[in-house]
Amino acid sequence: MLGLTSPQVKARDNATVLKRNIRLTDQKRLEVSLSFGAGTLYIKPGKKDELFRANLTFTRNEPTIDYSVAEGVAYLEINGAEEGKKDNEDKTFNISNFGDIKRNQWELYFSPDIPIKFKIETGASKNVLDFGGLRISKMEVSTGASETNIDFSKPNPIEMRRFTLEAGVSKVIIEQMLNANFHSFKFEGGVGSYKFYLSGPLKKTTNMNFEAGVSSTKLIVDPGIAFRAEVDRSFMSSVRVEEAVEEDDDIYVSDNFSINKPYLDIYAETGIGSFKIVRGR
């Protein structure tokens, strides 16, 4: 049952807007599978009485929204057109019309009052994702040739057991990352520029794993956050770790590190490029 459903309406530039609204009633949790091709994707916190709301602007193939509930678990699958989506075999992209792509824009809103699992895949897109205050139990994000800005503008009220991010030829920025309240984080990067702003509360020792290819990877850690970092570098990579002591070969501990207090336990494998841990806000 999709709840309130608005009809498609014509928008400017021969685009169409598809609107959907699903009310929050007695659902216990939500699992989201999202596949977005090319264009601009927005995710934002929604209203408390709305499980999900969408405004999907498209120019060619109509996106599909499938929704079901089983034993209190709501399942939501959103799929876009083929333009700009990743090929499962070689992770290349099929982009047929850049004029149409520019007009593809999705706005998705999710309730802050129900636990959510996210599985998000995007193609040649710009992604602006604000998960502030959402109750996220698990998150998997995979991006293609994209620019992705993720913000945890408010703390996640529940623990996120696992947060994984796979990025292709891309630029990625994550703001206020520790507000995500994750137990472990794994990042796989290809060719690109990646910045992780590690601010927010650190309630427990947290594992972070980075695998970077031909890239510039930078971790900006709040001054009050302690860390231990092991960096497996290649001979073609540069490594810089600020306000830390190298206690062993390629193993660094921050000046405020204590084994008896919560800290970031960081492991990184670097390829060609740079890996930096710096202090800042």
Comma- or semicolon-separated keywords:
twelve-stranded mixed beta sheet; mainly beta; 281 residues; 24 strands; 58% strand
Work out the helicity level.
Answer: under 10%
Q: Could you spell the SSE succession in H and E letters?
A: EEEEEEEHEEEEEEEEEEEEEEEEE
Mean pLDDT: 89
- Largest sheet composition: 12 strands, mixed
End-to-end Cα distance, whole Å, is: 44 Å
Report the sheet-strand fraction.
over 45%
User: How many structural domains does the protein architecture include?
Assistant: 2
Segments where pLDDT lies below 50 for 5+ residues? Answer: 83-98
List the helices and strands and how they pair.
Layout: E1 5-10, E2 16-23, E3 29-36, E4 39-45, E5 50-58, E6 64-70, E7 73-79, H1 98-103, E8 105-110, E9 116-122, E10 125-130, E11 136-143, E12 146-151, E13 160-167, E14 170-175, E15 182-189, E16 191-198, E17 206-211, E18 214-221, E19 227-232, E20 237-241, E21 244-248, E22 251-254, E23 264-269, E24 273-279
Parallel strand pairs: 3-7, 3-9, 4-8, 4-10, 9-11, 10-12, 11-13, 12-14, 13-15, 14-16, 15-17, 16-18, 17-23, 18-24, 19-23, 20-24
Antiparallel strand pairs: 1-2, 2-5, 5-8, 6-7, 19-22, 21-22
